[in-house]
Amino acid sequence: MSNSKDVEELNEEDIDEDEILAMLSPEELKELQSEMDIIIAPDESVPVGQRQKDQTEKPPTGTFDHRSLVDYLYWEKESKRMLEEERVPESKESSADVDKQEQVEKQQEAPSNKAGTLLGKSKSEAVLEGKDRNDSERSSSQRKINKLNIPKLALKNIKMTSRPSGNETNLDSTLEKIRKNCPSVTEVNLNNIENIPKEMLLDYVNALKKNKHVKSFSIANTGVDESVAFSLATMLRENRSIKTLNIESNFITGKGIVAVIRCLQFNETLTELRFHNQRHMLGHHAEMEISRLLKANNTLLKMGYHFELPGPRMVVTNILTRNLDHQRQLRKEEQRDVDLILSITTKLRCHSFFF
């Protein structure tokens, strides 16, 4: 009883609130704050936004990079601009398309007329005709299946290879034949060969500079990096025989791909280039540069890469279409010249025969 009396006799001035709050832990302070929010009514003189407690505490997600955001917005804007410039307006329907549509409508009307005539028949006749038709269709399908010669899998003839990739190309002998400019070697396929030394890849690229017979060179999934890509670019400046180059699934960055594309303005024989599925993303700047550099090339017909930006994608598609049209026109001119020469020779032969 004496303790309770002593507590009652204490005045409010004798209680040190700061000392009591300093002794509390952070968890106890949070609990006290939540209880006070429930018990004590909010002060109406304080704005509403400042009465509420902060409920958005979370760890920071990372530093804000203003430069990367500005670059991203710039390339998005450039991509939209290129897409609007390259967009081709829709052409009107030709008279041939209109005729085709009319024929399709007539064909659709014909079954409806046949259905009306069938409804006029009795139910028994319709059922019998349906059964006969199903039987005839089944018999015809069985005849077709019986006539098919399905080959059996020759599992005994499968060859076991020493490499997991299955590519049995002899690296040393093939390299020596390329160096000697052997006419029998027209295709070099090193795809998926494991652990090819970087020095050997550089030797292959350097040997192809003076080679005149290799038409296709494939080094997909062989660990090609930036240095090999730069040597490929210098090789394309000198080589005049390679028509297909495949460097997919490697470790080439945007700088290496741009270097290869830049050398295509000096190369007029390469018609197919594949560089998709690289370890590093090319980036928006590299895609814009590729679409700009390809405008100077008139021989590339196929490209194995999916552009992320729609603007460069549309530009490159139009460039490849332009090159295809150019090649078609050249073939027409060559055929016209051949026909002209044949007609002249026949006339000369006839003239010499009469004289």
Description:
The chain has 355 residues and is mainly alpha-helical. It contains 13 helices and 5 strands. It has helices at 2-9, 17-23, 26-39, 48-51, 66-86, 95-120, 123-147, 171-179, 198-207, 226-238, 254-262, 284-293, 310-354, and strands at 187-189, 216-218, 244-246, 272-274, 302-304. It has a 5-stranded parallel beta sheet with strand order 1-2-3-4-5, with no helix packed on it. The longest helix has 45 residues, at 310-354. The chain starts with a helix and ends with a helix.
Distance between the termini: 153 Å
Tell me the number of helical segments per DSSP (H or I, 4 or more residues long).
Answer: 13
Q: How many β-strands, per DSSP?
A: 5
As a percent range, the share of strand residues is under 5%
Biased composition (Acidic residues): 9-20
InterPro entries: LRR_dom_sf, TMOD
Biased composition (Basic and acidic residues): 81-108, 122-140
GO molecular function: tropomyosin binding
Short description:
With 355 residues, the chain is mostly helical. Helix content is 57%, strand content 4%. The protein has 13 helices and 5 strands.
Comma- or semicolon-separated keywords:
mainly alpha, Leucine-rich repeat, LRR (right-handed beta-alpha superhelix), 13 helices
Helix and strand topology:
Blueprint: H1 2-9, H2 17-23, H3 26-39, H4 48-51, H5 66-86, H6 95-120, H7 123-147, H8 171-179, E1 187-189, H9 198-207, E2 216-218, H10 226-238, E3 244-246, H11 254-262, E4 272-274, H12 284-293, E5 302-304, H13 310-354
Parallel strand pairs: 1-2, 2-3, 3-4, 4-5
Family: Belongs to the tropomodulin family.
Subcellular location: Cytoplasm, Cytoskeleton; Cytoplasm, Myofibril, Sarcomere, M line
Biased composition (Basic and acidic residues): 81-108, 122-140
